[in-house]
């Protein structure tokens, strides 16, 4: 693969070796790599950045043991735990999305399995919110096909279900479910017509080959959105003392370039870790990614949003806010 002469008329066709070479790009050649990836960012996303906001509808008490997660059964992190967020809050958020013409309202739920009764309760909430015409996304665990259909019939548009790491490395971060269960869940959802948001976490001790293999799997899946999280170790989780020295800004950038080159049409999102690993390098970041999280919630005085918008404008991009 020649990264110095991009041909925007065709998408890059990277082999596994090419992909590994992207992650092994010498730091002195990073600018060429970023320019190459930028060609496809501009081709599919123009000058546009979407900003996502995180809200949690269910928090804590998960039966699963994902090593990075504060909500897992082996986490001792001090977090807020609740089964359903107050309806008032959920619908207020949805009203906010509608009133501000935001492109999506996403609902994050901790946990991997839900009863049919819980899904019916969620479906009812989705029906109410869809009556407002908002585009809805749920970050939710494994659904049965029946449950996925119930939510689809209620109007749910998109589901977030991350691969998180490679098939090979997955047992190192989770023992309560498998990588293949995640892939099968996504395939089932795609079969029902759902849009998919799926990505991963970098910095959990995986090799570069693992990063490549995860992204190659995502190329097969072709999600509409591909979030990349850079680990922020949480006290009280098994990864609280993870060695983060591997996450230089240059390496993080190479991972995002690879995501853009392998799945060029997807929204490539720099999710967790942006403020830490790209501080002062936002202009370079936005040349490759077209989607980011803001650190503060979207309220009248949401400073996180203001800062994020300023960053985007300073870098010469236009923005749109999404609730996620
Ligand atoms: S399944 Fe989700 S909520 Fe549960 S531990 Fe894993 S990442 Fe956390």
TrEMBL record:
It catalyses: (4R,5S)-dethiobiotin + (sulfur carrier)-SH + 2 reduced [2Fe-2S]-[ferredoxin] + 2 S-adenosyl-L-methionine = (sulfur carrier)-H + biotin + 2 5'-deoxyadenosine + 2 L-methionine + 2 oxidized [2Fe-2S]-[ferredoxin]. It is an enzyme of class 2 (transferase). Pathway: Cofactor biosynthesis; biotin biosynthesis; biotin from 7,8-diaminononanoate: step 2/2. Keywords: 2Fe-2S, 4Fe-4S, Biotin biosynthesis, Iron, Iron-sulfur, Metal-binding, S-adenosyl-L-methionine, Transferase. Pfam families: BATS, Radical_SAM. [4Fe-4S] cluster binds at residues 62, 66, 69. CDD domains: Radical_SAM. One of its GO terms (molecular function) is biotin synthase activity. Homodimer. Catalyzes the conversion of dethiobiotin (DTB) to biotin by the insertion of a sulfur atom into dethiobiotin via a radical-based mechanism. This is Biotin synthase. It comes from Ventrimonas faecis.
């Amino acid at each position: 693969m020649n990264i110095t002469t991009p041909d925007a008329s065709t998408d890059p066709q990277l082999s596994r070796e090419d992909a590994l070479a992207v992650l092994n790009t010498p730091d002195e050649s990073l600018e060429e790599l970023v320019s190459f990836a930028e060609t496809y960012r501009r081709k599919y996303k123009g000058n546009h950045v979407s900003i996502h906001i995180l809200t949690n509808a269910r928090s804590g008490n998960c039966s699963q043991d994902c090593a990075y997660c504060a909500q897992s059964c082996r986490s001792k992190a001090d977090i807020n735990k609740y089964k359903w967020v107050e309806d008032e809050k959920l619908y207020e958020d949805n009203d906010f999305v509608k009133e501000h013409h935001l492109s999506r309202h996403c609902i994050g739920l901790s946990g991997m399995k839900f009863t049919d009764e819980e899904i019916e309760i969620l479906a009812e909430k989705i029906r109410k919110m869809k009556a407002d015409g908002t585009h809805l996304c749920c970050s939710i665990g494994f659904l049965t096909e029946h449950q996925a259909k119930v939510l689809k019939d209620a109007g749910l548009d998109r589901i977030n279900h991350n691969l998180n790491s490679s098939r090979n490395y997955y047992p190192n971060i989770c023992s309560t479910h498998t990588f293949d269960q995640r892939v099968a869940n996504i395939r089932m959802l795609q079969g029902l017509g759902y849009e998919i948001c799926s990505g991963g976490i970098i910095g959990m001790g995986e090799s570069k080959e693992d990063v490549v293999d995860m992204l190659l799997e995502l190329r097969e899946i072709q999600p509409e959105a591909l979030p990349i999280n850079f680990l922020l170790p949480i006290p009280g989780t098994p990864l609280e003392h993870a060695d983060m020295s591997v996450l230089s800004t240059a390496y993080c950038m190479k991972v995002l370039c690879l995501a853009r080159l392998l799945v060029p049409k997807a929204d490539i999102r720099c999710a967790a870790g942006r403020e830490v690993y790209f501080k002062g390098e936002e202009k370079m970041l936005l040349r490759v990614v077209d989607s980011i999280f803001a650190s503060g919630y979207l309220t009248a005085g949401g400073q996180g949003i203001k800062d994020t918008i300023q960053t985007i404008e300073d870098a010469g991009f236009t923005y749109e806010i999404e609730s996620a």
